[in-house]
């Protein structure tokens, strides 16, 4: 059985991404939880025992080790083609990979100013111009996908796929920091919030009791 090594569900946006890709598609896996930022050498050593990167998430498939959220999603897409994590049409697949890569490497202002923290009471913060530009770009992506693919379903390319897994933590950030989502983008936001696997992750994150002070400053 696959093993997915993850961090705290309350905080670890990167862990959430491949976890959702697996859970939504009913792919069996063993979840290995290692608490992050505890300053406990044993915790760090446990992560290193799975991946030399020293980071989560990490996927273990027999003798194969894959780290980094997007790399894991790519691996799952190849191993489980029936899950259709990427669209079958070449142009749509290129679009899905492009926005996933943009999510993977971009939106740093929003990440820094609105860290993932499910426990945080819902409330707005003053965003920088760069963060507001990030918010606008994300909603532009969601709206564009809804216009192009909404007839096939409520997610970015109709049915849930790899791109949705990549954007899922942003949905939480928008909710937590009371960022208004309007128009066609709202259809996508509501669909993600209603997704059973998304709700399952959220419940588990809210049930966690470990507090990481460095993430409680916003």
From TrEMBL:
Residues of the signal peptide: none
Keywords of this entry: Transferase
InterPro entries named among the record's database cross-references: Glutathione-S-Trfase_C_sf, Glutathione_S-Trfase, Glutathione_S-Trfase_N, Thioredoxin-like_sf
Domain GST N-terminal positions: 2-84
Pfam families: GST_C_2, GST_N_2
Biological processes per GO annotation: glutathione metabolic process; L-phenylalanine catabolic process
Domain of life: Bacteria
Gene Ontology molecular function, alphabetical: glutathione transferase activity; maleylacetoacetate isomerase activity
PROSITE patterns: GST_NTER (PS50404)
Protein name: Glutathione S-transferase
Lineage: Bacteria, Pseudomonadati, Pseudomonadota, Alphaproteobacteria, Hyphomicrobiales
């Amino acid at each position: 059985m696959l093993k997915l090594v993850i961090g705290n569900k309350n905080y670890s946006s990167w862990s959430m991404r491949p976890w959702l890709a697996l859970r939504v598609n009913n792919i069996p896996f063993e979840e290995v939880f290692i608490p992050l930022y505890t300053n406990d050498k044993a915790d760090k050593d446990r992560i290193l025992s799975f991946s030399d990167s020293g980071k989560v998430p990490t996927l273990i498939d027999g003798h194969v080790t894959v780290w980094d959220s997007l790399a894991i999603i790519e691996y799952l897409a190849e191993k489980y083609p029936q899950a259709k994590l990427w669209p079958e049409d070449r142009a749509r697949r290129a679009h899905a990979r492009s926005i996933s890569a943009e999510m993977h490497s971009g939106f740093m202002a929003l990440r820094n100013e609105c860290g993932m923290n499910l426990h945080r009471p819902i409330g707005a913060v003053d965003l920088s111009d760069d963060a507001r530009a990030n918010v606008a770009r994300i909603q532009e992506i969601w709206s564009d996908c809804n216009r192009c693919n909404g007839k096939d379903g409520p997610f970015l390319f109709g049915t849930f796929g790899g791109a949705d897994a990549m954007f899922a933590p942003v949905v939480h950030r928008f909710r937590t920091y009371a960022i208004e989502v309007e128009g066609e983008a709202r259809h996508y936001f509501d669909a993600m919030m209603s997704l059973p696997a998304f709700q399952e992750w959220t419940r588990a994150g809210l049930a966690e009791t470990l507090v990481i002070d460095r993430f409680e400053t916003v």
